[in-house]
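User: Can you help me understand a structure? I only have the sequence.
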Amino acid sequence: MRILVISALIAVMGYLLFWPVPVEPDAWNTPKDKGYSGVHHVNDKLSFAHAIALGELTALSHKEATTIKREYGPEDFALRSDGTIATATHSGTIMLLAPNDTHFTPWVNTGGRPLGLEFDASDNLIVADAYLGLLSVSPSGVITLLTDAVDGTPIVYADDVDVAENGMIYFSDATTKFSAKAYGGTLSGSLLEILEHKGNGRLLAYNPNTNVTTVLMDGLVFANGVAISHNQQYVLVNETGSYRVLRYFIAGPKTGLVDVFIDNLPGFPDNIATAPDGGYWVGFASPRSASLDDLSNSPFLRKVVQRLPASLRPKAKAYGHVIKLNKQGKVTNDLQDPSGNYPLTTGVLETADMLYISSLTASSVAVVEKANLPKGEDE
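Assistant: Let's start by predicting it. Here is the structure, written out as tokens:
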């Protein structure tokens, strides 16, 4: 019996130390997590009153909503010129909410996993599809592939997208290594990229006049949300795995230069979107993981972690959190829901009277009436 126990222990140790895993982690020094303090102090300002189901009106509670089978994962939004809101789900379905409607209705299905959405000047819906690449959906619903490769490298995780006033399309390829389709979905691929931390992500530009795709930035640790500045001078891109937002200049004397717009954020920034007043909304899919931060400078131990059962690895926490930034990159609003009723918040679409909140996993879209926000919190 003793020999069997020893043999079993040796086998387990051998597995934890040597079993092949897809990640080859790099060491990095994570910035000290200040947690939910200062401007990010814990609050319940995201304790909204209602949600809009993907197909029907539903109670706010995510737990209640999931008792009914329906579409889920409204990752991002786009606002059409007539006020119609588009979102997309894990099934590949793009859904529309017309003005004054009470629920989203199916429109088209890409056959992939649409993530980032943005309407261009002609009301074509530009889609960053994690499985397929960059797509365009005409007003009549015809789907066209714009690009799925750049410089001979496949685009395997198109994530978020924005369209400039001159028609240029900027979008992120979250990782060139951990294909969303090949590695079991968008969440699985993102966790591998963040754990490895080599920086396989990039910011891309697509010119619809020439059909040419170019690489603007690479070396990003899970390149995520993309937003073009109000003055069309720069592109903001969320580097999820490094808890920061970067700024890439596309016009003016700084063209081609990169700087940090805001860093050392308290969570994993997902989408970023412009606000009507000149600011930017950022959604956090999850708070930071203390265990992952502690292992930032220990690549060998991060490989060991990847060999553990999935239930024992660091994972996203259900915690609602979105922030608003001004044009200087300063936080002007911080809305949280510690209960996690609406989990894995990814971003915000702000209209004249509402905030629409998106999610990686929810089966509804959360809606906050701006009039109900705490006085003085929304500019």
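Now, to help you interpret it: The longest strand covers residues 212-220. Residues 56-60 have pLDDT under 50 and may be disordered. Let me know which part you'd like to focus on.
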